[in-house]
Amino acid sequence: MKNELISVAGPTASGKSDLALFLAEKFGGEIISFDSMQIYRGMDIGTAKPTKEELARVRHHMIDIADPTENFSVADFTAKAKECISDVQKRGKKPILCGGTGLYLDSLLFGTEFGELEANDKLREELAAFAEENGNAALHAILAEKDPDAAEKIHMNNVKRVIRALEIIESSGMTKTEWDKKARENSVSIPCIMIALNYRDRAKLYERIDARVDIMMANGLFEEVKELCEKGLLKEGTTAFDAIGYKETMACIRGEYSLSEAAEKIKLATRRYAKRQLTWFLRNKDINWLYPDDYTTKEALYAAAEQLIAEKRQDG
Predict the structure, then answer these.
(1) Rounded Cα distance, 299 and 4, in Å
(2) Taking the CB of residue 250, how many other CB atoms lie within 10 A of it?
């Protein structure tokens, strides 16, 4: 069990952070976040970062490590998270992974950042529109400049593959050629007991999401976004700029709709995101699912998680 990892995943507002805190305290652990937005400094309320009290209870890693103006790639996350895991283990602590960004977790545990990327629909649409307006050869020329090896292998009329190669560059910071090479080199997974939370009654999860958004608005999300904008820290074209909660609030600041309308749009976008999160995690057959609405108390849920871990350890 010395080098064992435990991960707690699930959709936003499912209660995974509370469970991870319990497990970290139970097993003498430290939490390593795999949330793609909590890495950004100053984006606190809208990303539901741990409170000061929670940070005082258990040491957290991979939070507040980049400015919102930076584009932080999957490869960046994987490298830094592995360093954190090594450091935690060297100090005799248990790494407890916690978050909702499935791509980050998969890339860390299985190296699948070098095999599969979450679709960037916005970028795909932009590149497809560029090809439609300027021709397939013009789009292919962009790829030839950024990744000559891939361009040589992909015909300019295979627009879908050209777009995919450009998407890899944009999302990972690597060329498709480098990506394929890493895929061959990364075939060993990191042992981990994987837990994820879901709700049998989806309406209960959505109620939790709506309540969380209401709390964010009450805690000053509008003021947080306004301050980031005034400091020039939310720039178009960056990952942080398009974060759920921030783009809707920025539109409110621009006067496109009211604060209450912004809140409703955030709730809708978050519910849709939760569905995508679940779709991603449900593909992983190694995940052990727990359903909070099966239990009458948090303590009962935590006991079930503890028992699950004990059983997995016995199974070897």
Answers:
(1) 24
(2) 20
Backbone angles phi, psi at 78, to 5 degrees: -60, -45
pTM, rounded to two decimals: 0.79
pLDDT confidence of residue 117: 61
In whole angstroms, what is the distance from residue 2 CA to residue 94 CA?
8
- In residues, how long is the chain? 316
DSSP string, 224-243: HHHHHHHTT---TTSTGGG-
Sheet arrangement for strand 288-290: 60-61, 29-33, 94-98, 5-9, 192-197, 288-290
DSSP class of residue 40 equals: B
C-alpha to C-alpha distance for 42 and 239, rounded to whole angstroms = 14
DSSP-derived secondary structure letter, 200: S
- Give the dihedral sign, CA 122/125/131/132: negative
Closest CA to 59 of 31, 99, 19: 31
Instruction: For the chain, give the percent of residues with pLDDT over 70.
Output: 93
Question: DSSP alpha helices (H): ranges in 95-199?
Answer: 102-110, 121-134, 136-146, 148-153, 159-172, 176-185
Tell me the CA distances in angstroms from 256 to 59, 249, 250, 268, one per residue in order.
Answer: 40, 10, 9, 17
